[in-house]
Amino acid sequence: MTFLTNLKQAFQDNASIENAKPMEAYMKNHFQFYGIKSPLRKSITKSVWSLHKTEVQNNAREIGMELLQQKQREFHYVAMEILEKELRQKFVKDDIRLIEKTITSDSWWDTVDFLAKYLLGNYLMQYPEETLTVVSRFSDSANMWLNRSAILFQLGYKVKTDAALLFSLCEKHSGSKEFFIQKAIGWALREYAKTNPGAVKKFVSETNLKPLSKREALKNL
User: Where does the source fall among the domains of life (predicted)?
Assistant: First the structure.
């Protein structure tokens, strides 16, 4: 694909070993980086994207998956940005397979949190009838990142939040020893507290949450 070829060349031309090392260290050395910081990466992406706008629009899913197969983390960020923009309000039901694939590919908080809110969350906003089926499957999965996504997908829903579902997911995973699950519970509750602080206070007081989850949930209350 021309877009991907040109993007690769642009990233290679702007690679920085000096920047890459601390970026890789920040991500616990799970991923390789070109060393292109976010503002420059977004500028490069915007420029190349604009040159191949039609190609990206017509092949967003294929391009996204191809980007996710690249080694450097910068490509994964571009994949998320393309999928979020090009599929917004244009999902098809089968896209849940693609969303699950993105969440479980080279998973870490820097991609999963975006994907949970902007892909999974927007998909289920478009197809609310799929919510219980999808969320139950993700929540029951042995994959911790799918569990986290199930807890976080309503970020930004505000008054549209299904509080009963949110609370049930938080309670279900309240005993988890995983840092990223405890943190997700606290974050999801803290965000919903901006809409319904009383309900969150009540839930936290009545639920045996881990200290981290409780602390995060009540941070702004």
Answer: Bacteria
